[in-house]
Specification:
The chain is mainly beta. It has a single domain, classed as YmcC-like fold (Beta Barrel), CATH 2.40.360. Helices cover about 10% and strands about 45% of the residues.
Length: about 325
């Protein structure tokens, strides 16, 4: 039997969250491995980056496999965030209490597996790299089994761009903890990236979605299509924006994300020769009641308690998330 860490506050929160039930309760009872775990891999580039970069100093450039010469990470102006937790970018709005549920499948080696993702905007905020950020809680299910539970952090600058400030993902398999490849802007040379630009333009250069060299996170994106139409279970949409996301370590694999104005991400697809295929579509979008939002907050805080244990060297250097 696995030895559980002794955390009186965490135990108390687990008891409180018991009323959540269902998908929320599934993550609350996950065991904590007996020792802290920090996942590190080799950086995707040999470029040396200092712990702080002035907004007036250009970021180092890197040559991608497609021949594109781009900044390794986006220049980040800390002074350009007057109201960072009001995220009202029309392509990626994040209102506290919004829950979006996606269903679809993953396919690998000819096996098709049901996939379900629950994305919830909490009412928690957390200061990341000096910027107050909105806390998102994701639950990822494969064939009915919870395989990943994640806290992600976003902030909107004064120009209307939404920034991805970091991620704490816990990966699980058959109830066993695998790893938590955490990256947080401002820690271990990680840098914030653009989750959604205010303006969209075809043929614009790709941009960094975040750069976490300690865990080999170097995802990039570019505008693939503008003004397309698509239908999902939730509704049909026009004037849809399609963003192509890729990682230069896998040059033939591309994930396509479809965004509808005033809604956000409505579909996930793919193109290229990726051997692992994922397709998802929005099936439900609701606004939680105040009581439901409190339970979500409690669940996310339980996950944060584990983060301080499992990612002591990265997440452990951050301030606690704050409730309203």
């Amino acid at each position: 039997m696995r030895r559980m860490n002794s955390l009186s506050m965490l135990v108390g929160l687990l008891l409180v969250l018991g009323a959540c039930g269902g998908e929320l309760g599934a993550t609350a009872g996950l065991p904590i491995p007996p020792t802290s775990t920090t996942t590190t891999t080799n950086p995707p580039t040999t470029v040396e980056v200092q712990d702080s970069v002035s907004v007036s100093e250009p970021a180092p450039q890197v040559l991608l496999s497609n021949g594109e010469l781009v900044p390794l990470f986006e220049e980040f102006d800390h002074d350009n965030f007057g109201d960072p937790t009001t995220i009202d970018n029309s392509w990626l709005p994040m209102r506290p209490g919004t829950r979006m549920v996606y269903e679809g499948f993953t396919a690998e080696d000819g096996e098709v597996i049901p996939h379900r993702l629950v994305f919830t905007v909490t009412d928690l905020t957390k200061v990341i790299d000096g910027v107050e950020s909105v806390v998102i809680w994701d639950l990822d299910f494969s064939d009915g089994e919870l395989v990943e539970t994640e806290l992600a952090f976003f902030a909107q600058d004064d120009s209307g761009n939404v920034w991805r400030m970091g991620e704490y993902p816990e990966e699980w398999e058959e109830g066993e903890f695998i790893e938590a490849p955490t990256w947080i802007a401002g820690v271990a040379k990680a840098r914030a990236g653009i989750a959604m630009s205010r303006s969209q333009r075809l043929e614009a250069p790709s941009y960094s979605q975040g750069w976490g060299p300690a865990v080999d996170f170097s995802d990039r994106a570019f505008v693939y299509e503008i003004g397309t139409q698509t239908c999902v279970v939730f509704d049909c949409f026009r004037n849809v924006l399609v963003i192509d996301e890729f990682n230069d370590e896998e040059p033939g694999a591309h994930q396509l994300k479809y965004y509808a104005e005033d809604v956000g991400n409505i579909r996930v697809g793919w193109r290229g020769d990726d051997q692992s295929i994922e397709e998802l579509e929005l099936v439900e979008m609701i606004q939680l009641t105040p009581e439901e939002l409190v339970k979500v907050r409690e669940g996310a805080m339980i996950l944060e308690e584990r983060a301080y244990i499992l990612s002591e060297d990265v997440y452990g250097k951050t301030d606690r998330a704050q409730a309203p």
